[in-house]
Design goal:
- By secondary structure, this protein is mostly helical.
- It has four helices and no strands.
- It has a single domain, classed as Metal-sensitive repressor, helix protomer (Methane Monooxygenase Hydroxylase, Chain G, domain 1).
- It is elongated.
């Protein structure tokens, strides 16, 4: 289930933002910051990663539904199962 980079530009931006948040969490821990602040930032990074994963899955679903050849070849059920498994891995 390959996806074009232009389809995932917003996902890449979200992942870069999460990368910055994770770097911030590491700094906060090294500086001995309050655990509530650290956990709050860690939760924000986790949500950003989850949203990126769901966006990737949604893009895959969109492409799957738009691909007429997939429906005719019988691969649609197999693709649906793969996407469902991916979705549940983020749940």
């Amino acid at each position: 289930m390959a996806m074009a980079a232009d389809e995932l530009k917003t996902v890449v931006n979200r992942l870069r933002r999460a990368q910055g948040q994770i770097a911030g969490v590491i700094r906060m821990i090294e500086e001995g910051r309050d655990c509530e602040e650290v956990v709050t930032q860690l939760a924000a990074a986790s949500r950003a990663l989850d949203k990126a994963g769901f966006a990737i899955i949604a893009t895959g679903l969109q492409r799957c539904l738009a691909d007429g050849d997939l429906a005719e070849s019988g691969d649609r059920d197999r693709m649906r199962a793969r996407l469902e498994k991916l979705f549940l891995s983020l749940a």
